[in-house]
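2024-03-11 09:14:02 INFO queue: dequeued item L-amino acid N-acyltransferase YncA, len=154
2024-03-11 09:14:02 INFO validating residues
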Amino acid sequence: MEKITIRDVRKEDCPRIMELIQELAVYEKAPEAVTVTLQEFEDAGFGKNPVWKAFAAVHTEDGKETIVGFALYYIRYSTWKGCRLYLEDLIVTESFRGRRIGNMLFERLFEEVREKKFKGMNWQVLEWNEPAINFYKKLNASFDPEWWNASIDF
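2024-03-11 09:14:37 INFO prediction written
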């Protein structure tokens, strides 16, 4: 019997999560952009001062568990709105897409927003990623054409 469940990511899941991060980077046409090491990733999520949390989509078949997707987030503070969940990455591995796993991860994120009494959640999507944009539209997400992304790397 096969099933999909959503649970918190554990430290021992980090190598698999890093594989999925690399898969996402390849999909987004930037595989060389992933420079974080496994150790840095683990420390940032499970070290002395964790800065991220994630939910894993776990496929179980014949007693064997495989992480087939994840949603990683952190808390951001808006001076206009208050605490909000910021979804950094969400991916479902290609062979499991179309099974409503993305919906399951979003539902768990929505539960987290309500449980923590956050004011909402934010995320980004690449302008060419039509499958993701169409998925987000089904969730009634709004898109803001006025704000551009800016960053500085050190």
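2024-03-11 09:14:37 INFO annotate: The domain at 3-139 is CATH 3.40.630.30 (Aminopeptidase).
2024-03-11 09:14:38 INFO item closed
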